[in-house]
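task queued by scheduler; priority normal; single chain, no ligands, no partner chains; default sampling; output format set to structure tokens
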Amino acid sequence: MPRRSAGRRFVAELNHAVTSLFRLSPAPAPRWPIGLRAAIAMAAPIAVMTLLGRPDLGFQAATGAFVALYGTHLPVVERVRVVPFMAGGLLVAAVLGALAGPSQVATLIGLAVVAIGGAAAMFGFALGPPGPLFPVLLYGLSAHIVASGADAATYVTAVACGILFAALVSLAPLVLPSRRRVAARPLREVLPGPAFGAGERLLVLRVAIVTVVGIALALLLDPDRAYWIVGAAVAVVGVVADRRAAFSRGLHRMIGTILGAGVYLLLAPLPVDALWLALLLAVLQFTIELVVVRNYALALVFITPLVLLLTGAATGDVDSVAVATERVVDTLAGAALGALSGVLHPREDSEGALAKRA
């Protein structure tokens, strides 16, 4: 009887995950302002540096644009208190990646430190979405770009400028008097903690497990791709302590990335110059922010080509078929890890402590 009950629960969770692929959830608030700011933060550094004759630095600076994605659920008078912490955290991740890049062993050790340490900070202070994914991604991109031959000091300077610009874009609504008049909560309420309830502890444990196992898998596949496997797994872990969410996000990650790799294969061979590529990345980033809260798989159809195009442009190394194939394999492995780690959550814990705090 218990075995039959467990089977019914599995079928129910699988059915929920599959049907969620075809469902558009309502957006909690208008997303176009967030999308517009994220698109500007991504495209402007590329366009400016291209006009100055250094598009490579523009693409490197654009990797710092992810800071504009944090604190978007907060009014800008409260976001101004969160963004400096995230900007500092992302810069630390970039510096560590640039320093570790020349050494494969150091890169893998640093990946574990950034993933687990970033998760502890994110969950402990209830920073909310998009969670610890982007510190992991920026660390991995930094290590990869420096290992590909970029000067570490120049790269870090470019990323720092990109982070600063993205932070300013994120906080641009402060120029409006109506936004400044909104009452802001004290910092201890905006960033409560550090506190680790049952939900937070399980989320950190899941990140630690998928990081270690992901790195081990990368040693069998290709150590240079470890950050993508771990990043895919961490993205599936998300910020909600929930078993069903883990299975759904894992399936969305797999399907969305496969479709996104197909989009990348269509876009990568196009002979576009840096300015047109900046516009394309802006359109992708804007679209991502419109749909990411409505359907995660649909968002990944645009996230995947954006990251692959940005990485290829920043390193000057684009092999569309090989890269797309590798990313699909890495994502399938990482998403499966993230989804399987969801069994650590009790079935009755639908959202956990972190969801209540966020």
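post-processing summary
- The chain has one domain: 2-179+199-353.
- Residues 349-358 have pLDDT under 50 and may be disordered.
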